[in-house]
Each structure stands twice: as C-alpha cells, then as structure tokens.
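for the writeup, i need someone to sanity check this before i put it in the appendix. the sequnce is what the collaborator sent (i think, or maybe the updated version? ugh). structure was predicted straight from it, no edits. if anything looks off just tell me and ill rerun, i have time this weekend
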Amino acid sequence: MATKPSKFNTFTFFKLPSAWWTGVRLTHLDEKKAVTTVKHKWANQNPFKSMFWAVQGMAAELSTGAMVIEQIRESGKKISMLVQNNNANFSKKATGRITFTCEDGHLIKEAIEQTITTGEGQKFWMKSVGVNEDGVVVSTFNFEWTIRLKQ
C-alpha cells in the first residue's frame, strides 16, 4: 500500500475533523492490518473520566475503513463504501493510550473482486480490538462494510 499513515492523518484533518481533534491517529497501514491510536484526555472523556465510547468508535472504524479506502484506491475502480451495521463491547474503562488493531484486510480484496466481477454490492464484517497500554482489551468493535460499483 502506497499511502503513508502521516498522509492519511492529514486526510482526517480535512475529511474527519472530529476524529482528528479528539486525537485519533493512524499509525500503521498495509493490506492486511491497520492500527490507530487515541489518548484519553479532557477533550475526549465522558463524565466517568474515561474515554467517550464514540471516540473509541472513531478510532476503531478508522482502523477498518483506512484499509477499505486504500484497497478501493488501488483497484482503480469507482467504488462506494459505507458502514451498514456495527456493534461494540466495552470490557474495561478506557484510560491512557488506546490502540485499535484490525487484521481483516484480506476480506476487502475478495469483496472488491466480487463486486467488480458481478456488478453486485458486497458486504463484509471487520473487527477492531482496542487495548490499553498494559495490553488489556478495553473494547471490541465490529463494522459491516458495504461496497458497490458507482454508476
């Protein structure tokens, strides 16, 4: 993948400003895995002094969506993408730096190939797991992405 995380982070400033202002940053991107981080701070906390669930969701979604964006770009086709469903589990209070990792990049290429071949939209689920600085899982997000060829 040609896009560097720093270039993608510039993209978030202009296209996903709420993620950028709350501190969500992409730190690793390749065709199999993406990693984002976000640090708990005053601007992204809830009344319970932990990270607001929506900030965790933005970081988790970016770890899945960055790979989708990049693989669509590499396909050379005009393909739209959208999250159709999601669910999450919160297992520990999110404080400190939280790192979200998605290793489902292999699902994207297959879906893109199918939508190009058949002309029909495709759906696939991707999982992102958030861990704190001690390596303890604080939240797990699942996103159902839909892609289809643009008319």
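Helices lie at 5-15, 17-21, 53-75, 105-118. DSSP finds four helices and six strands in the chain.
thx in advance!!
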